[in-house]
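Incident log entry.

Two folding requests arrived from the same account within the same minute. Monitoring flagged them as a possible duplicate submission, but the sequences differ. Recording both here for audit purposes.

Request one:
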Amino acid sequence: MLTDRGFQKVINMAGGIKAWNGNRAIGPEDTGLYLFTGAETLPQVLIVAYSLEKGLQDFYLSMTERVIGEAVKNLFEKLAGIETIHQERLITEYRRETGTYLSQEEFETTQVLGAMEGGLTTEQYLELYEPDLENETEVVSLAMAIEAQALDLYQRTADRTNAEDVRLALMRIANEERAHLKQLAGLLD
């Protein structure tokens, strides 16, 4: 499976997923797939992806009001800023693909509301991971879990589509989530 996705070096780890101590997606295999039918056009996929990025950004910004520590507030603001960059890239791709110019405000009227990256809601993530929101390490760990969930969702969605342009776009977005994970791992270091 990994070599089919372009990985050149694949190592079989003794113990498999049960021995893995890193981030992994959780929940049933269809988690978040309600957001995608598998028949979306590329512009529709970009709208959903943007919506999930925006949902995560809104989550991070809402957390700045719930926490007390200044360092943790700054961390949530930094995480929200990272999502802004991803939103801008998705809008640019949408404009290029459709040949239409929509302002960010106009684009946001097309959003799918109620979920964020990975296909879960804010409350579902908080309930699932029960992070100490005043602890920077736990906040970064939560962010990594969300990015891992998003990476998994985009890969599963890419596997379900027959449209090559949609599949390639979903894999690009998945690769961006992989890069987000590396950024967040850098924060932990």
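Request two (distinct sequence, not a duplicate):
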Amino acid sequence: MAEKLYTTTRLEAFSDGVLAVIITIMVLELKVPHPDGFAGLLSIAPTLFIYLLSFTFTGIYWINHHHLVRRVEQCDHRVLYANLSFLFGASLLPFFTSYVIEKRSSSFSVALYAASMIFTAICFFLLRLAIGRLLRRTGGLQPEDSATQRKHIFSLGLYIAAIPLAHFHPHIALGAITMVTVIWILPTSHSDEYPRD
């Protein structure tokens, strides 16, 4: 019996909505500082940095999700469930963002933040594999897909390294996490598309 396939229209619309809500929830964590002027803004600089970091990750995921899903016109159950797992991981980001902010980037909070990044990245990788399976059937895989997978695995390595690093130097660990955003903003070799995950 042929495997049942579904159009990706609702998957994209639902995913866009969830990611938009995630960004909205995160921005609600930004509070106006009590001190006035530049000193007040300086006092919430760490909060703004964590928000910017989480916003950038969400934006990069949104861009990559768009470029990944648009390559297939139909999807199967594997793609649907992999997409749900990714959205679940991403939906936890506002909580862990708030946790790091509230705990003032303590060792444990930064390690937990890195762990949440690992979980979300693994879920997105499963989505990439599920769509890659469909592309393989239709001959739609490209050489750039292998380079993207290597970049994804390297990013996971940085996240994993950030966890023990956070125990000794939480701010350096945040720097390693930030480096992942730079990796994905830079274009993949032999790719004229936007950065991926």
